Every structure is written in structure tokens, then in C-alpha cells.
Amino acid sequence: MIKFIRNISLVVVMIFFLLQKGAAQRFNFAFEQFTSDDGLSHDNVLNITKDKDGFLWLGTANGLNRFDGLSFKIFRNDPDKPQTIPGNYIAGTTRDKKGFLWVATNNGLCRIDTRTMKIDRVDLRSPEDKYARYEVMWGEFDSSGTGWYMVNDFLYAINQETLKWKRYLLP
Length: 171
Description:
Elements: H1 2-19, E1 45-50, E2 56-60, E3 63-67, E4 72-75, E5 90-95, E6 101-105, E7 108-113, E8 118-122, E9 136-141, E10 146-151, E11 154-159, E12 165-169
Antiparallel strand pairs: 1-2, 2-3, 3-4, 5-6, 6-7, 7-8, 9-10, 10-11, 11-12
């Protein structure tokens, strides 16, 4: 009789767990879509990086956008102002160990202090170059703080402190 009651109890407990809605599996995701109608510089977002203050930086085919959760601040190239980003097609964004945002564009590379909005362009030219512009691909920083970027026919190793670089010809 005890064995029968134990089996019935086990069946009741199993049915109870099977009839639960799986509360541990429930996720409530909410997505909101933003377009150029909402202030985004272009509908084609190519990359996203979150800075140390929680702002999202979105690289698009027509500028860099900082999103604060409500609105966008757009950064674009102005050929007459060296304090702007070097190009409008944002191929990649990444952060270094100090929290600076590095922006790879279709016409060069820059570093942004996301708190002061100071933009430092990285001069990638070499005297023997014949490039009309420097198309920078996305890069990343290693544990020693060196940034590695593919630019035209070269791999650049860039010091995040001094912005000095050494480059290696790609095969």
C-alpha cells in the first residue's frame, strides 16, 4: 500500500511539473526598430560598439551615430575640418583598453574620446605611397594595446598611445 501511495504521489508531482508553463524559460524581449526617419544617418547599420558610458555607436554607410537610448547624434566627414571623422562609410568600430573609440572608414582611421568628443585622425600616409585614399577595414586591439588594422595592401600595427604605426605588406 505504501508503494502504491508513493507511486501515485510521484505521478501527481510529474504531472504538476509537466503542466507548468516553463516560467524559467520565459523571456520577454522587446525590440524597437530605428530608421533614418527616426534620426539614424542611414538605414544600413554596419557595426555597433558600446562605449564605457553605455552609449551605442552605430557605424553606417553614411556616418557614425551615437545613440543615447532616445536620439542619435551624427558624426560625418567635413573635408574642411580635420576634427571630423575621415570618411562617412564606417567599416568598423572598436574600443581600446582605455575606452577610446576607434573608427575605421573608407578614407582613414580616427580615435574618438567618447566623453569629450575629441577626434584624432591617424595619419596612415607614407612618403612612398601613391594611394588616393586609405580604405581601412575593421581592426582590433591585442592584450599589449596594439591596434591591428588592414589598410589597402598593408597590415598596420598602431600604438594606441602615440598613434605611431608600423606596417607590413600583405601577401
